[in-house]
Predict the 3D structure of the following.
Amino acid sequence: MLKWWPLFGIRRHLTEKKEYKSPISIQSLYGKLFQRSLFVYILDVGSSNALNFEISALESPQYNIHRFGIYLTDSPRHADVLFVLGRPTEPMLAPMNETLNQLPEPYYVITIDDSFDDLTMSPYPEIKHHVAQLKGVPSPSEILGLLLELSKTKRIVS
């Protein structure tokens, strides 16, 4: 007969890290950060597909962002955080501004720029409530650390 408790211990050991850290720190714009669940909307304005894979990995059992109260939403009207993936091209500036207008207050914007050429690209546009910019393709652990920094959730898993 197979007992369930050794399997639970193995599963927890393989799927949960002890600590999630962000490569950058977040500065609050509103005096305090979010204390409850955090809803994230993703807007791809010209990134490589690698960023989409890294963010979708956050919902896998290995990271399981739902246990921290972080959810990906399908509408910007329900979002607390906007992820802007890539560097916006000229045709994508109007849809990006429309999405920013739909976000309810208070909200934060995090940009992840995965462009390889910094010399040929134009500077990143000024975005209201922009709190962090990541360069390259961060790992899911780094993205989760950044979201935990925003939500002020306990970072160490016991």
